[in-house]
Inverse folding.
């Protein structure tokens, strides 16, 4: 199962790379902004915490599994691993689909000087952050496929990076950029799950 996890992680990386190339072909811009983030800033910590968790879960855990690192007994069951495969496949494909749904507004990291359009159609009608939601589902699947302590730790690190990026970087940026339009949208649509994490018009949830 560790080899299958590595293959699925490789598919995630390939699709992410394809999304960058598609963006460049369509707009003349790759959409990548992570190399311009100020080192030590909140976004810098959020971005690289997320990526660290991705690498630990997607690469470190399967390699640990191939090196005879024992899985957690409570999750060491064929049914759990099969569920992991399903979640990983769905999450990887859904992440790419959500990235494509953003069209020209798709970015990796936030550039405060840019004013991209507010995307509210497609999967963004269900949740405000479908890319992160789908990625978390996919990497939860990878964790269940190779359920060792490395995978669990990596997933928790990844989750921490997502929460930091969304709550302290992206949501404040979108409020400043789109004002009432974003506030109205966020009051209707959940943060990562439908109906959960909606933002009140007077204060954040």
């Amino acid at each position: 199962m560790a080899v299958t996890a590595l293959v699925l992680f490789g598919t995630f990386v390939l699709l992410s790379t394809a999304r960058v190339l598609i963006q460049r072909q369509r707009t003349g811009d790759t959409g990548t902004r992570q190399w311009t983030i100020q080192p030590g800033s909140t976004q810098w910590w959020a971005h690289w915490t997320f990526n660290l968790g991705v690498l630990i879960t997607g690469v470190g855990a399967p390699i640990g599994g191939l090196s005879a690192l024992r899985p957690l007994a409570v999750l060491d069951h064929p049914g759990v691993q099969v569920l992991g495969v399903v979640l990983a496949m769905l999450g990887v494909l859904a992440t790419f689909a959500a990235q494509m749904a953003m069209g020209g507004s798709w970015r990796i990291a936030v550039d405060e000087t840019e004013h991209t359009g507010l995307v509210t159609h497609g999967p963004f009608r269900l949740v405000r952050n479908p890319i992160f939601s789908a990625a978390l589902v996919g990497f939860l699947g990878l964790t269940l496929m190779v359920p060792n302590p490395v995978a669990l730790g990596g997933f928790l690190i990844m989750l921490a990076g997502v929460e930091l990026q969304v709550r302290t970087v992206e949501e404040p940026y979108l409020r400043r950029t789109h004002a009432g339009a974003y506030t109205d949208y966020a009051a209707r649509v959940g943060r990562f799950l439908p109906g959960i994490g909606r933002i009140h018009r007077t204060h954040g949830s």
Observations:
- The chain has one domain: 2-14+41-107+120-188.
- The mean pLDDT is 94.
- The longest helix spans residues 149-188.
